[in-house]
Each structure stands twice: as C-alpha cells, then as structure tokens.
C-alpha cells in the first residue's frame, strides 16, 4: 500500500513563498510521473506542474517562472517550490504519482494541502 503525504501548505501574503512536499511511504521514484494539481472553490481541478523520471518537467502557463517542481529519490519525496504567490494561487493542492515500479505499479493521490494567499 502506497501512501502520499503532503505538507507545507498554509497562509501566505501575496508575493510570498511556500514549499510543498509530497512524501511517499515506499520507494516509487525510480520510474514515475509525479504531478501537482490544484482545485479552488467553484473551479475545476487543474494541473500545475509535472515531473518525470529522467527530469523532464511541464508547467501550467499561469505558474511558469514562479513555481518549480523537483524530486529527491533518496527521500521518496516530490517538492513544489512556489514563489511570487498571488491570490489566484489559493487552492487545495494535491500530489499525484503514477508509479511504473514493479510491485507498486499504480496511480496514487495525496490527501491535499490548503494554500491560501491573502493579505
């Protein structure tokens, strides 16, 4: 059973920074695609950033240049560094990992962490 635990959310002023972490309970980051999604009240869930084993990354246009996704295989953790935060970034952020590792093959979601950007 793979569990993903997100931490790092909170309340921050516009222009501030937060770093979200998504820690996996077992080693799944040797062959994977990991993504951060967010969902604001009344809006559809949207893809924020994605990273693939090998290092390739993709970002939503709305966060390019402000957010950075990265992974630490030794710590079984994916990060989302969020800088220059705006009120429009307010949402629940969810981590998703699609693992291609034998024995833990599957698509996994974290419980979500709230990010609120407000003065």
What descriptive keywords fit this protein?
119 residues, mainly beta, seven-stranded mixed beta sheet, four-stranded antiparallel beta sheet, 11 strands, 52% strand
For the termini, the CA-CA separation is 40 Å
The total of helices stands at 0
Helix content: under 10%
SSE string, helices as H and strands as E: EEEEEEEEEEE
Radius of gyration, whole Å: 14 Å
The parts where pLDDT drops under 50 for at least 5 residues are none
The overall strand count is 11
The major beta sheet can be summarized as: 7 strands, mixed
- Give the amount of beta strand, in percent: over 45%
Quickly give the structural class.
mainly beta
Give the mean pLDDT.
Answer: 95
**Overall outline:** globular
Question: How would you briefly describe this protein structure?
Answer:
Helix content is 0%, strand content 52%.
Write the layout of secondary structure elements.
Elements: E1 4-7, E2 10-12, E3 18-24, E4 32-39, E5 46-52, E6 57-59, E7 67-72, E8 77-82, E9 91-99, E10 106-109, E11 113-117
Parallel strand pairs: 2-11
Antiparallel strand pairs: 1-3, 3-8, 4-5, 4-9, 5-6, 7-8, 9-10, 9-11
């Amino acid at each position: 059973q793979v569990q993903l635990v997100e931490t790092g959310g909170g309340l921050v002023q516009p222009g501030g920074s937060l770093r979200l972490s998504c820690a996996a309970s077992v080693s799944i980051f040797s062959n994977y695609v990991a993504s951060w999604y967010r969902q604001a009240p009344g809006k559809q869930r949207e893809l924020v950033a994605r990273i693939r084993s090998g290092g390739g990354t993709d970002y939503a246009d709305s966060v390019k240049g402000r957010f950075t996704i990265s992974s630490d295989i030794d710590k079984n953790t994916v990060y989302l560094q969020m800088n220059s935060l705006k009120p429009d970034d307010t949402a629940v952020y969810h981590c998703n990992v699609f693992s291609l590792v034998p024995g833990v093959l599957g698509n996994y979601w974290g419980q979500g962490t709230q990010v609120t950007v407000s003065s």
